[in-house]
Amino acid sequence: MGLPRSPSLIADVRPREVWGWAMYDFANSGYTTVVITAIFNAYFVAVVAGSAHWATFAWTAALSVSYLLIMLCGPVIGAYADAHAAKKRLLAATTIGCVLGTGLLALAGPGQLWLACALIVLSNFFFGLGENIVAAFLPEIAHGEALGKVSAWGWALGYFGGLVSLAACLAYVTWAQAHGQAAAQFVPVTMLITASLFALASLPTFLFLRERAQPQPVAAGTYARTITRVLDTLQHARRYTDLRRFLMCIVLYQSGVSAVITLAAIYAEQAMKFSTQETLLLILVVNVTASIGALIFGAVQDRLGHVPTIALTLLGWCAMVIIAWQSTGPASFWLAANIAGLCLGASQSAGRAVVAFLSPARRRAEFFGLWGFAVKLSAILGPITYGVVTWISGSDHRLAMLITGVFFLLGLLVLMRVDVARGRTVVLAEDGAAAK
Predict the structure, then answer these.
(1) Among 239, 147, 231, which residue's Cα sits nearest to residue 430?
(2) What is the pTM assigned to this prediction?
(3) How large is the C-alpha radius of gyration of the chain?
(4) For the chain, first and last CA: distance in Å?
(5) How confident is the model at residue 320 (pLDDT cuts 50, 70, 90)?
(6) For position 230, which CATH number holds?
(7) Using CA atoms, how far apart are residues 34 and 195, in angstroms rounded to an integer?
(8) Spacing of C-alpha 191 from chain mean position
(9) 183-201 vs 147-178: helix crossing angle, rounded to 10
(10) In a domain, 217, yes or no
(11) What range does the domain containing 376 cover?
């Protein structure tokens, strides 16, 4: 990748290790792109649930169950990883779980609603835990002032990974449709393609990424002690005022982001009347835009500052919602989708970097568990709000999209109260005291 060695990286970190870490973003992005965003979600609504009026709500409800499980388990697993220096082992376990769950989605055909829901809960649960764990490696490989840049490398490569998986699936779908196959025949094969690419692309992570953490005797063992450690973090959260505010900001704006990601293909097909191929092509192009956005805003973030950078992306999200809501033809919707792509790569990468910047060294995995808690809470609030609105309104997807924009406005208001410099000072003081 030609990643720079200095001053961005910690002294003993080699560029190939950063590449290995970033390759996990490449690997797991195929799951979110193909399963959650582009193919299986629309397939679930149209084929598995038979386009019932409650189908979109059922999809968001299944995802909400998985996110609730991640919220409950993420901080505890993060604390366990810190205490036992087990991030890499746990990452391997979650990867195997997500790959198997994705492959088994191939068994979910027309009318098999409960099987599809169970497999979505299973695969997305393991995906979310793995996302938390791999993020906790970031402060171990990059200096504080370069976290935005290095985080952006991962997100940019991740969107390219999503692009590769989606392109492979699009090629197969095009071939299958040319041979007269229906969605019930070709969608299951795309699940097998996605699972295989995830497994293959994650290998560099496990070959090159090192576990630098050391076991901590404070949580030497039991599940009860792990829970006590998490409760201790929450009880002393007053010391991390700006981190708490930023996590609330994440809950709000990521609710909007999650709704867009989870329901993009459904909106394109239901509100804009796009065909499957048109939808896949749109999302393929948006992945390129998202990769560019992550790289551009990653560099801007370390110069302009964390809060101004995220504020810019939230304004972009607001503009995207208005354009999508008013779109009556493909041209304006393509514009909205690519604005979303730019903001998607930027807001997610920037958010991860801020959490890393405001996390004390001894609690990195644990605090990223709390970050995962916030992200997964938003992944419940945003999509389920969208699903409820479409159910109550008789499948009015435009109204649901407009309401989604409220999350971005509220996130912007909370962001204005975050002082990153003050929060970093608190973290450095704690790290210095722990080193004595």
Answers:
(1) 239
(2) 0.79
(3) 21
(4) 38
(5) very high
(6) 1.20.1250.20
(7) 10
(8) 19
(9) 150
(10) no
(11) 15-210+222-430
Look at residues 129, 153, 130, 157 and name the one whose alpha carbon lies nearest to residue 141.
153
Q: Which two tokens stand for residue 325?
A: 């809501």
SS3 at position 273? coil
Residue 37 forms part of a structural domain: yes
Does 215 reside within a domain?
Answer: no
The three-state secondary structure class of 9 is strand
Tokens matching residue 3: 């990643």
CA 52 from centroid of its chain's CA atoms: 28
- 303 within a domain of the structure (yes/no): yes
* Greatest mean pLDDT range, 220-229, 377-386, 423-432: 377-386
Q: How far is CA 384 from CA 267, 277, 395, in A?
A: 14, 26, 14
Count, residues in the chain: 436
User: What distance in Å separates the CA atoms of residue 296 and residue 313, rounded to the nearest whole number?
Assistant: 12
* Number of domains present in the structure of the chain: 1
Lowest-pLDDT choice from 118-132, 243-257, 352-366, 373-387:
352-366
More confident residue, 430 or 201: 201
Token readout for 56 is 């979109």
Q: Which residue has the tokens 């805003």?
A: 297
